[in-house]
Amino acid sequence: MFPFGLVTGVAMAAGGIPPLEAILMSFIVFAGASQLAATQLLGTAAPVAVILLTAFFINLRFVMYSASMRTHLAGLDLRWRLGLGYILSDNAYAICITRYTQHPGEAHRHWYCLGAALPIWFTWQVATILGVIAGASVPQAWKLDFAAPLAFVAMSVPLLRDRAMVAAALAAGATVVLAGSLPMRLGLVLAAVAGISAGLLVERRAA
């Protein structure tokens, strides 16, 4: 989490987002992939609607996460559910759902989730702030804009473990190249839709 947060902070600063706004974005959004995507789109002066739509598609996985977690945490009051929903991340979800599956009758599951998610949230924020500070102090001539796509490559390659993920990556990559000339950076939105659709189609055929 720390190196990813550090690179994300550097990318946001290199993308022209003022330091205070970049730090606030990290606290409010708390989703590395969508923060990087938004940074790239902001750097190309994309319309706000396109930025929001892109972030929406990237973060759709959290809908599946919360649907899965609901089985184990449905009895909590609204404050707990909102709080845990805010600090939930990919890493924390993997840790918690594994624990809940192995120990279905365990009490105080919400405290376990808090204990798993809070250190990840804290590490992310510290790393992002340090990255923003470092990125803001680096001269523009150094051209650190490559940090965002580089981080996406580092995130994506380890996920290519099955046919569905490979199909999603190939479909998204081909679409973003073919639709690169579309206005308002709509090619990114189409690429997200194409990748999700291809992955789901291959997964259903394999089932």
Describe this entry's structure for a reader:
- The protein has about 210 residues and is mostly helical.
- It has a domain at about 1-40 and about 60-145.
- It contains eleven helices and no strands.
- The protein has helices at about 1-15, 20-30, 30-45, 50-60, 60-75, 80-85, 90-100, 110-135, 145-155, 165-180, 185-205.
- Helix 1 crosses helix 8 and helix 2 (about 20-30) runs antiparallel to helix 8 (about 110-135).
Q: pLDDT average, as an integer?
A: 85
What is the approximate shape? globular
Order of helices and strands: HHHHHHHHHHH
* Share of β-strand residues: under 5%
Q: Main sheet? A: none
Q: Which class best fits the helix and strand makeup? A: mainly alpha
Number of strands: 0
**Percent helix:** over 70%
Number of continuous helical runs: 11
Radius of gyration: 18 Å
Spans where pLDDT lies below 50 across 5 or more residues: none
From the N-terminal CA to the C-terminal CA, the straight-line distance is: 32 Å
